[in-house]
Amino acid sequence: PMAKVLYPGKEDFTPRKRERIFREIRNNDWDAVILSHEQFGMIPQSPEIQQEILQAELDCVEENLEVLKAQGRDVSRAMM
Q1: pLDDT tens string 10-52
Q2: Is residue 65 left, alpha or beta, with left meaning phi > 0 and alpha meaning psi from -120 to 50?
Q3: What was the pLDDT predicted at 43?
Q4: Does residue 67 share a domain with residue 56?
Q5: Which positions ≥6 away from 17 have C-beta within 8 Å?
Q6: Taxonomically, which superkingdom (predicted)?
Q7: How many domains is the chain built from?
Q8: What is the pLDDT of residue 33?
Q9: pLDDT for 64-74, tens place per residue?
């Protein structure tokens, strides 16, 4: 009941207010910040973090393709 929760609305993510809400998220001690997928995607990320995320996704896809191959399933070029 005493949790400090931030639930920003659409109006907080307008181009004019976006930087303010990012500062509020970053500089306060929130117990939880609830964002929509779209809002989460607006959070700026460094190129290094973007690369890590993409590499993790690629590794997962490659692992899944290897599992399919090991099971004797056909892996088409389109799946790669």
Answers
A1: 999 999 999 999 999 999 999 999 999 999 988 888 999 999 9
A2: alpha
A3: 87
A4: yes
A5: 11
A6: Bacteria
A7: 2
A8: 96
A9: 889 988 998 88
The CA-CA-CA angle for residues 30, 52, 64, to 5°, reads 110
Distance CA 80, CA 78 (A): 5
Is 30 in the same domain as 11?
Answer: yes
Widest CA span in the chain: 54
List the structure tokens of 66: 């290897």
Residue 50 tokens, joined: 């973007």
Range of the domain at 76: 45-80
Concatenate the DSSP letters of all residues of the chain into one string: ----EE---GGGGSTTTHHHHHHHHHHS--SEE---HHHHHTS---HHHHHHHHHHHHHHHHHHHHHHHHTT----GGG-
